[in-house]
Amino acid sequence: MLISITDMQTLSITKPDDFHLHLRDGMALSNVVNHTTAQFSRAIIMPNLKPAVIDTKMALAYRHRILQCVDKNYNFEPLMTLYLTDNTTVDVITEAAESGYIKALKYYPVGATTNSAQGVTHIRKTYAVLEAMMKTGLPLLVHGEVTDDDVDIFDREAVFIDRVLTPLINDFPELKIVFEHITTGTAVDFVTHASTYIAATITPQHIALNRNDLFKGGLQPHHYCLPVLKAEADRLAVLTAATSGDPKFFLGTDSAPHARNAKEARCGCAGIYSAYNALGIYAEVFDKIGQLDKLAAFASRYGADYYGIPHNKEQITLIKKEQTIPATLPFGKETLVPFRGGGTCAWQLKK
Questions:
Q1: Computed from CA positions of residues 157, 159, 162, 166, in that sequence, does the dihedral angle turn out positive or negative?
Q2: Is the pTM of the predicted complex or chain greater than 0.70?
Q3: Mean pLDDT over all residues of the chain?
Q4: Strand 10-14 and strand 315-319: pairing?
Q5: What count of other Cβ atoms lies within 10 Å of the Cβ of residue 111?
């Protein structure tokens, strides 16, 4: 059963997957992982640790550490990725594909976001690797922004499409590419009209917030993420894509935990921690525009179909009941502020 809605107060769906997730490592990992496992059966795990996860051996070791932290009450499968660098080799791709555990490679333009110092300096340096990925069917997950100082931060995604993504698709027309955490109407249009090899993930923050939310009541560091929030017209375009029934668009939270003191700092880091109540946020936003019936496919089917993995069998239920979100959560020796920390969400997971 994919979906059951009762009077729009209870929503039962196949337990979803999160196709873009940051879990960190060590004690911090143990603090956050089970917020995800309560809501999701599988997750694409980002590789931007320190040091970055650049080969299969490192990925399998990280997978083991994740599974050691998973609550025994949950069945959860981490779907591992590798960090693409200028020095990634074809042999790395061959080993990754043969392992069965590596589901994609992540492309960060150098300096684009958290722990991206080892990112790609120019996409053409990776062309031999991309050719091997195309042949093996491993997708490329792109952080779709340029990092040039002369490009306005609100234009980075659109410029990336012109300068990087369009030429890349022309050169590798059968390479599977996921345009991660899209934020603009321009990106929506691009993915909509691209081939079936191209898909996109959509976060809760980019359908719930716009750039005004960065400044309401003063600067809001816990609303700062990369790609940065965009204009209201862009938010509506991304929300329309999420609720369109187009299988190219699927759930990826980009939940990114950071210590509170690292966010509320002179040079605050980018990232929003949504894993605590991600499904509730999606349900609330879909419900507000009368599209709650579209959530199940967006969350539980389209991503799995794109990655060629079976749909989950377990069911979960969301209820329309106001939930108070904790102001802070444990995070290693520090604390973190979750999305809407200290506020409420209209939907929650039924325990």
A1: negative
A2: yes
A3: 95
A4: antiparallel
A5: 10
